[in-house]
Protein: Unclassified LIM protein ML07501b
Amino acid sequence: MAEKSGETLCAGCHKAIGMKWVVALDQKWHRYCFCCDTCKMPIDSRKSFFFDKALYQMSTSTCPACFTPITDKSWILFSKAKYHKECFTCHKCHRMIGAHESLKHNGGLRTCVDCAKKEDPTVGQAKTCQGCGDGIDKAWVIGLGSTWHSNCFKCAECSRVIDPKEKFFKVEVDGKNVPKCSDCKVTKGVAGLDVKEKVCAGCEKEIDSAWVVALSKHWHHDCFQCSHCSRKIDSKEKFLTNLGKPICMGCNNDHFRSKCTVCGKPIAGTSLVYKESSFHHVCVNCYVCGKFPSCLC
Structure:
């Protein structure tokens, strides 16, 4: 900070400063003198800037590749950022990309056309979505060897949008190869591929509408029935299993549950067993005297 005859001088113009100033770099400046050396716009002293014999506004004139100020009058604007010409290079081959050379903006990375074509042979060609058949003019995804709108690359069964990087399976629908997500049940698909489908555990046919989930399997509503009497079991009613198959409560009581030797009715819960016979607790009588509840033998 320079002073002359008791006056405070601006570090930029070296003229006297009146009542208002900014303090930066341990010096005082007129507000309009503390400005970017490139764009000449005033710099907020509270924001970051570079100082190397000159001042630069970091937020507007800094190359995002080398993080140094852009002092030349010529630069390249790409994705709302300014680059030094020598810094504007392909992220794969590191070749300098000209300002008027077409390039592919690959996920935020600068990619020259030659390198982009190695990843996607359709670069530079008019693209058509394999899903809807319409032209693609902005973002797209590559899947099953074709280009798709990102919202069109979805499961042929549940219509969930699929990320091409996740696991999916190929099936043929109306002569087209389309994806199916890995959330749908596995069966054998086109060309020997494992494809997930929902298959009824009862009739072993594909389920294309509503279904019941029971015993960790999918069932048509009409196929979820008692394996003994063939009565349809409502998904809300209680049922038991026998050898992994559903059994209604009626058939379980009549044919699969232990019966009391005395009264002949099914035994629910605990029972008494004697000489390979089962009894309700309240039905137990002495085999000798036949009296219950007090035995005189």
Observations:
- The longest strand covers residues 168-173.
- Confidence is low (pLDDT under 50) at residues 185-196, 293-297.
- Residues 260-297 form one domain.
